[in-house]
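Support request, please re-run this one:
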Amino acid sequence: MLILHSFRFIGLAFLIPGVVAPELPGAFARPAAYGDLIAAVLALLALMTLRSQLGLLFVWIFNIWGTADLLYAFYAGNSVGLEPGQLGATLFILTVIVPLLLITHGVVFRLLLRGDRPTASRGG
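Re-run finished. Output below.
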């Protein structure tokens, strides 16, 4: 699940002229783009340290940050009156990727609260 989130740098596409409409509000684009970048870095840090106590801490930090980032993007999009045409080619992020990210954040919270340590694989 962390590997999926390590690709959240794709949110930087909200900042690329031509990919999004010029009228895409910066109040939505900048926090969404940089929030996703931070979430991707935290996911990578969690992956690199996953087998240690520090890794568990990074998973918690990543999951809280990543969830808050997605929820804030919903709030920001609503507060600036975001319209689908303004998203251009990045519309796929909101329609395909964000639902997957929200579901996996929920699963990670469930695993963390149950006390299961997320691992790269559970080989037998």
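Helices lie at 2-5, 26-48, 53-79, 84-87, 91-114. The radius of gyration is 15 Å.
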